[in-house]
Task: structure prediction
Amino acid sequence: MSIRDLADYPWDAVAPYRERASQHPQGIVDLSIGSPVDPTPEIIRRALAEATDAHAYPQTVGTPALREAIVDWYARRRGVPDLTVDNVLPTIGSKELVALLPTLLGLGEGDIVVHPRVAYPTYEVGARVAGATPLPADDPAEWPDGTKLIWINTPGNPDGRTWSISELAAAVTRARELGAVLASDECYAELGWDGPWVTEPVPSVLDPRVTGGSRANLLSVYSLSKQSNLAGYRAAFLAGCARIVGELLTARKHLGLMPPAPVQHAMAVALRDDEHVAAQKELYRERRDLLRPAVEAAGFRVDGSEAGLYLWATEGRDAWESMQRLSELGILAGPGPFYGASSGEHVRLALTAPSERVAEAARRLLGGNL
Result:
């Protein structure tokens, strides 16, 4: 597959619904794309400013301060106490890593890349760009021989699916049987809402209870876009198997994939400050507590969504009909078909609009006639 074979960017199909929602007398409430709207915390912006004398090339491997901050963060926030700086690597946001990982691992024709059935589309795109075969499959028992890379997403985008310790351990066992790399995209891990995640932290694939003492062929991917409002910084990292991290580092050096030096400095500061993360989570909790009851009162069922940044909702009809009906209330959602063939009746509602706009959406849903 070449770049020319990629489909048009799918969000272009949402334009008519955006136009209809924009015609609402009180304006559009855009809940379609999960791009942060809240300010980047001052402590991080100040750190970025302090590092703007960046005359030399940045380090692809990451500064010592950043690598140590990532190691400390995994120990403090993810229950992974035994990493070293050789197990971590910064990336230029997480999307480029997701898209490029099959290529950087040397996958190609005949290799299978497994990804969730309901999924962020970049897992499939990355496989196709490498010439590999993408396969949507959630149950480890469905992962076939020939699988070289397995993506799991916990908590999931868009459905909030969150893997327990026992589920992660079963996934690791199956990946080892296949000799496959297991990569866990965990960028919503700080946003647990329901079930066990009210009181327990969302586990990582690198948790010692999961790994059985070996990180071989295991990777955890994380982004600061959500917890620290750093989407515009392109600030992310991976951790796990030292062999794979070393191979990816070599490839990324050759390709010039290096986060800017000021961003690396800001990331280190962000990772060491938990206060702003807790404050941001509370903002999302307040918005969720406003939006979910209104969505359900309007006739939608919210599926999953026990963690993460979205409500995954259906009213039992074609997603594009729901998109139209919501747009008539001036609300723009994300269409489920973007996230897999099994999502034709769902829409995704993000918690990333300003609080007053989320409140306005709730008012319309409660008072509107869907």
Notes: The mean pLDDT is 95. The longest helix spans residues 275-297. The longest strand covers residues 147-153.
